[in-house]
Amino acid sequence: MAVVTGLASALESYRGRDRLIRTLGYCCQLVGGVLLEQCPARSEVGTRLLAVSAQLSHCRTVLRLFDDLAMFLYTKQYGLGPEEEDAFVRGVSVLSNIADQLYYPCEHLAWAADAKVLHVDSARWWTLSTALWGLSLLLGVASRLPRSKRRALEAQMRSEVLTLLSNLADLANAVHWLPPGVLWAGRFPPWLVGLMGTVSSLLSVYQAARAGGQTGAGDQTEAGSSP
């Protein structure tokens, strides 16, 4: 019953619902991709799971239409960062916030083009939004490395390491979705994309549950949601 209550509580919040949709979507892509490649007899099930994954991803894209204001308020609140923070970390975090802020309108334009609301090339805007997401992840990785070194004896290190691993998993997928010719772009099979996304999502869910257990709060303090 405690598990059901916790799940219901998570689904009541926007951020909790987004994490669960993201996790479920990537799990469907992981299992569906494996079934298509390894179990020809179950290929139809695999195709259906990939279709579910695609629809859940589209659902999250639509929900992100309302994330711009939250991201703006977060960026405004952070400003140039706390003075006690390392100058390098503050600079990288500011750049990461700018990349996140630009990511949303680019994705909105890509969505609007696919929905035939705007007559523009959606591929160009999807590429730009993915590049901004990848840049944000890369900056996030860079900012957490010095943090982990300075706080090696503090409890914060575990959270930083988990976030670092989550960012790296997402970064692997972000590069995969860039135009062919950029590193390993386009080379991941569906199951590997699903695996990277599942790892990232489960780490995020674990951190949220851990933070909620420590503070008694529902959502973590964070802006928008990642793809």
Automatic annotation (TrEMBL):
One of its GO terms (cellular component) is peroxisomal membrane. Its main location: membrane. It comes from the Eukaryota. InterPro entries: PEX11, PEX11C_met. GO terms for biological process: peroxisome fission. Pfam families: PEX11. It is found in: Peroxisome membrane. Keywords: Membrane, Peroxisome. Transmembrane segments: none annotated. PANTHER family: PEROXISOMAL BIOGENESIS FACTOR 11 (PTHR20990), PEROXISOMAL MEMBRANE PROTEIN 11C (PTHR20990:SF1). This is Peroxisomal biosis factor 11 gamma.
